[in-house]
Amino acid sequence: MADFGRAARNALLAGFDGVQILANYLYLIAQFLNAATNLRKDEYGGSLENRSRFLFEVVATVLHEVDAKRVGVKMSPMHEGGAFAANDETLPTTEYAIRKLNEYNLSHLLLMGNTTDFSGTPLERLADDGMFQHFRPIYKGTLIANVNMHRERGNRLIAEGLADLIAFGRPYIANPDLVQRFAAGAPLAQVDWETVYASGSRGYSDYPTHQPTITSSEELIYAKDNTGTEQRARS
């Protein structure tokens, strides 16, 4: 528990605006929440309330170091392989945890959509927009929607009241100027997956920014007058 508090404190000392507690995927907090991996017999195991205890002790520890308005939680029910395949406890546990997060007045909940196929699982109805339709009435604070987001879908989810903000992950890898591309309605560059999370600059810091195409009728000619000032004329 002390490690979480120390990490949060160090993040602010390093200049971060806030911290986000990762409570999904296959990591430690998710292992406590999952009835298939949490086989403890003490107060941290058994009932969904007990399995959620570790998450809320982490939240309390982080809030001792960082103001609640600078702390978020990232979680959602997921269907991964092996012991992390969705079971009958997956959705009730997540509902309980997210409902209880309302008590902490946090910066946000980052809710992930389905990253795998939910067909034939207890989470089937949460596929696509179903995740946000289900949890928006449960979480009363700022909800950020994530996974498979694009400009049109993000705008629609906000317009429909299913999210307050949209998190774009993968598009940012290949588009360091994603905001500007969205604003201009420009096409997005595609990710080179062979280089993702590898060492070196290739696929990390070498994606170019968008360069608008100028047609011949709109070509701009730049020249300098005799004072050295750049002038622009349309051809």
Name given to the CATH homologous superfamily: Aldolase class I
Number of helices: 8
Could you say what the CATH topology is called?
Answer: TIM Barrel
As laid out across the biggest beta sheet, the strand order is: 1-2-3-4-5
The termini sit apart by 66 Å
User: What is the overall shape?
Assistant: globular
The CATH class designation is: Alpha Beta
Instruction: Give the uncertain stretches in residue-range form.
Output: 216-235
Q: Would you identify the CATH architecture? A: Alpha-Beta Barrel
Number of strands: 7
What do the pLDDT scores average to? 89
Major sheet size, sense and barrel closure? 5 strands, parallel
How does the helix and strand content classify structurally?
alpha/beta
Question: What value does the Rg take, in angstroms?
Answer: 23 Å
Instruction: Tell me which oligomeric state these chains represent.
Output: single chain
Strand content: 5-15%
Count of distinct structural domains:
1
Helix content: 25-40%
Q: In sequence order, what are the helices and strands, one letter per element?
A: HEHHEHEHEHEHHEE
